[in-house]
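Exercise 3.2. Students should predict the tertiary structure of the chain below and write it as C-alpha cells, then compare their answer with the key that follows.

Predict this chain's 3D structure.
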Amino acid sequence: MGTGLIESGENVTAKLKEDEKKMTKFLFAFLVLAGAGVAQAAEPIIIKFSHVVANDTPKGKAAEKFRQLAEKYSGGRVKVELYPNSQLYKDREEMEALQRGAVQMLAPSVSKFGPLGVREFELFDLPYLIPDADTVDRVTDGDIGKSLFAKLESKGLKGLAYWDNGFKQFSANRPLHKPQDFRGLKMRIQSSKVLEAMMRELGALPQVMAFSEVYSALQQKVVDGTENPLSNLYTQKMHEVQSHLTISNHGCLVYAVITNSKFWTGLPADIRAQLEKAMIEATAYERAIAKEENDGALAAVRASGKTEIYVLSDAERKVWKEALLPVQAKFEKVVGKENLDAIHRIAAEVEARNAKKK
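Answer key:
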C-alpha cells in the first residue's frame, strides 16, 4: 500500500511537469500571435488618391497638402499614396475604380457625375452662369453644394470637399474672337451634355476625350481646340500645340473630392475626424492658390511666345454670353430652376458686396 502511494505521487509530479511544459508552449504561442496582432494593428491605413492632372497644378498641390496633413494629424496611422496624371486610371475609369474600392479617393471635375446619373452637377458647366470665384465658393459651401453631395450617396460615394481651379479659357489653332469663329472646329470636351450643347450652339463639333489624351490629339490635329483653366493648359503643354488662346472666362472648373462610402464609414471615428480636419485645411489652401497659379500660367504662356493671347473686352463677353444663353434655358429642368435662381441671387449679392468695398 505504501509503495503504491509513493508511485502514485511520482506519477502526479511527472504529470504536473508535463502540464507546465504544455502551458509554457501555449503561453509562448499566445504571445507570438498577440505580437503579430499588434504588428498587424500598427499597419497604416492606405488611401490611394488618384487624379488626372499634374502635381504642379492647384489640384495636384492640394492633394499633396492633404497627404502631408492627413499623415501628420493621424500620427502616421494613415498613409496617403498620390497617383497624378492618370497614372492609374483615365477619366471614366477612375470613377468605376473608386466604386469597387480599387482606390479610396478621387478629385474629379463635377462634370464626371453627369454620366453617373447625377445630372444636377452639370449646372457648373453652364456658360457664363457663375461670374466669379466668390460666387463659386458660396454655391459649393452652401445649400446647393450640400444637396448635390447628398445625391452621390446612392452611388456609393461620399463627398468630402469642393475644390476649384478658376475659370476656363478657349484655345484653338485659329483666332476665337467672335462666337462665329468656332464654326466647324472640332473641340475637345469632358463628357457633359451641357458642354456638348455649348459647343454645338457655337457651331463647333464637340469631341469627348480623356484628359490624358488631349495633348497628343491636339498635336496630331485630331481635334482643333479645347477649353481649360490656364494652369491645366500650361502644365500639360497644350500651349505648344495651340496657336491661339482666348481669355473668355466662360465657365468655372469645380472639382469634388470624393471617397468610397463603405471605406469612409469603416474608418475609426477618430481617423475620420483627423482626415476631415486635413481636408478642411487642404481645401482652404487649394482655393488660396488657384488664382495665383492660373495667373502664373498665363504669364508663362505669354512668355513662351508660342501662343497668341486675346482677351475679350466687356462688350465682346456680353455678345458671347447672349449667344450662349439658350444653353441655360435648355438645361433649366435638368439642373433645377431653383438652383439657377439661387445662383443668380448669390451672384447679385456678391456683386453688391464687392461694389461697396470699392
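Discussion points: The radius of gyration is 29 Å. The longest strand covers residues 157-172.
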